[in-house]
Amino acid sequence: MLTIRTVFDARPQRTKFNQLTALLVATWHRHARAHRMEVLAVGEVPVGLKSFLDELGVHVVLVAPSPNDAFSKNSNKMTACYPCASGNRMLLVDNDTCITGHLNPQPRTGSSPAARQCASFSATTPATISPTPSARSGVSASPNTSTPTTKVPAAPMPVHTA
Predict the structure, then answer these.
(1) Which positions ≥6 away from 133 have C-beta within 8 Å?
(2) How many of the other CB atoms lie within 10 Å of CB of 28?
(3) Rounded Cα gap, residues 74 and 68, in angstroms
(4) Can you give the residue ranges of every domain in the chain?
């Protein structure tokens, strides 16, 4: 199992994070609720958001602001960088992240314990979206039936002058 963790700054001057955290949690609930979700809250979580998090089964942990909070806007994220007590792998995400597909951790193989603790994540294509076909239908001998190697040009073409 995986633990997905984010830091939510709930202090009054940081109200924009309320909506971002709610969106992250909603996308987690839709696509990855098989994995544990933790929200480390700096400050008092607003009542409406707290009830939403509780309803969806999110684990909320109240934490104090980092001692370096006045000097670095990212210091509170560092409070989340500790191993999970359960021994789960931990994925630290920003609260402006959206989970758009199912997370399927595939353990890496390797001889070292560190290599075995890592995981790679592959988002699966939702059932409502069909993958790009590998070839167009038609006569296979025609060069027009193959899928183009590039779908979009990497850069705009320069204007030709006479």
Answers:
(1) 147
(2) 24
(3) 9
(4) 2-96
- In this prediction the pTM is 0.61
21: which 2 tokens? 């955290």
Question: Any idea how long the chain is?
Answer: 162
- pLDDT of 114 higher than 80: no
Name the token pair of 106.
């595939």
CATH topology of domain 2-96: Spore Coat Polysaccharide Biosynthesis Protein SpsA; Chain A (3.90.550)
What is the band of 60 on the pLDDT scale with cuts at 50, 70, 90? very high
What pLDDT, in 10s, does the model give residues 14-26? 677 888 889 889 9
Query: Residue 53 is which amino acid?
Result: L
User: DSSP string of 118-158?
Assistant: -EEEEEPPPTTSPPPPSB-SS-TTSGGGBPPS-SS-SSPPP
Q: How far apart are CA 91 and CA 36, in angstroms?
A: 10
The per-residue pLDDT for 59 is: 92
d(Cα 92, Cα 83) in Å, to the nearest integer? Answer: 11
Give me the torsion for CA of 126, 127, 128, 130, rounded to 10°: 90
